[in-house]
Each structure stands twice: as C-alpha cells, then as structure tokens.
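Submission checklist for the structure archive. All mandatory fields must be present; incomplete records are returned to the submitter.

[x] Identifier: DUF3817 domain-containing protein
[x] Organism: Lentzea indica
[x] Residue count: 100
[x] Sequence attached
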Amino acid sequence: MKGALTRFRVMAYVVGVFLLLLVVAMVLKYAADMGQMMKVVGPIHGFLYAIYLVFSVDLALKLRWSIKGTALVLLAGTVPFLSFWAERKVVEKTAQGVPL
C-alpha cells in the first residue's frame, strides 16, 4: 500500500504542476495569440492525467474508498490547485486509517 500511496502522491503533484502550466499556456494562447506552449503542454498533461487516474484507482481499490471519494479524487486533477489539496487529504485520511 505504501508504494501505491507514493505513486499517487508523486502523480498528484506532477499533474497539479502541469495543470498550472496548462492554464498559463491557455492564457498565452487566447490572450497573446501564442499557441505553441499549448501544443506541447496540453498532450503532456493529458498523458500524465491518464497515469494519475490509473494510480488513483489503484490506491482507491487498495484502500477501499467509496465511489464518491474516488470520483472526487479523480476529478481533482482537472481543477488547478485541487490536486495538491486532494493529495494532502488522501495522505491525512490514510494516516488516520479513515477511508474516503
């Protein structure tokens, strides 16, 4: 379980950082007509988000999370800064032995 938690934590941070980069890229694309960054960051974030989903579901199955808790953690990778918060909550609840 510790390995699954570590994989989830790493991917939560990586996806969070790339989501913030994606927001910057979108602003540059639409406000400054500079879409080059979006062409690079968009697919990378999508690929990393897919890995985040796999690791999150793996952890959810091992810790027997509820469907609602699992869905909320999965969606956390789509809202800027939320994956960082979700990662903290998951670690906190796991340390307490409380399922999501």
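[x] Structure attached
Curator remark: The chain has four helices and no strands. The radius of gyration is 15 Å.
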